[in-house]
Amino acid sequence: MMKLSEVTGLLSDYEEEALKSRLYQRVKDSYPWRYVDIMPGWGKLIDRLDQEINLVDSGYSLQQVKIKWGGLRYYIVCDPDLRDDIDDIISQAETLANLIDSETGEHVPEESV
Predict the structure, then answer these.
(1) Whole-angstrom Cα distance, residue 49 to residue 64?
(2) Does residue 84 have a pLDDT over 90?
(3) What 8-state DSSP symbol labels residue 62?
(4) Mean of the pLDDT values across residues 73-97?
(5) Where are the alpha helices (DSSP H) in the chain?
(6) How many independent structural domains does the chain possess?
(7) Residue bearing the bigger pLDDT, 32 or 51
(8) Exposure of 59 by Cβ count < 10 A (0-12 exposed, 13-18 middle, 19+ buried)?
(9) How far apart are the C-alpha atoms of 62 and 66, rounded to whole Å?
(10) Domain annotation covers residue 111
(11) How confident is the model at residue 109 (pLDDT cuts 50, 70, 90)?
(12) For residues 43 and 105, is the Cβ–Cβ distance under 8 A?
């Protein structure tokens, strides 16, 4: 389970490039809407999200990472037998993203969201 304190703050430039590289390796060329947009403030969260999903299904494929309606969206293809567990992980990350400023990586109190 991800904790807010573990996924706030910014990645270093090196860490961000390594994350982008790892995520793009998960994207299959056959997906027509493949898109990876990592907001700086969500880098640690997305990095942790990828790691958590990888523990459940190391062969998952990434379709999109983006902001939609002001929130994080993470679209994947995975083993259907593991879908419920992975959806729970993604849902948790998307909820945490609402508490993290997408530019600064700082915690945004719920009252100001």
Answers:
(1) 13
(2) yes
(3) E
(4) 96
(5) 13-26, 43-56, 83-97
(6) 1
(7) 51
(8) exposed
(9) 11
(10) no
(11) confident
(12) yes
Q: Are 101 and 5 in contact (CB under 8 A)?
A: no
Q: What is the pLDDT of residue 37?
A: 84
- Rounded to the nearest integer, the mean pLDDT of the chain is 91
Inside any domain, residue 112: no
**Does 40 fall in a domain?**
yes
Domain of residue 67: give its range.
30-105
Q: Provide the pLDDT for residue 20.
A: 92
C-alpha distances out from residue 64 to 9, 52, 59, 89, Å: 22, 17, 16, 16
Q: Which residue has the tokens 């190391």?
A: 58
Exposure string of 5-26, with b = 16+ CB inside 10 Å and e = fewer, is eebbebbeeeebeebbeebeeb
Structural domain contains residue 10: no
Structure tokens at 56: 């459940």
**pTM higher than 0.85, yes or no?**
yes
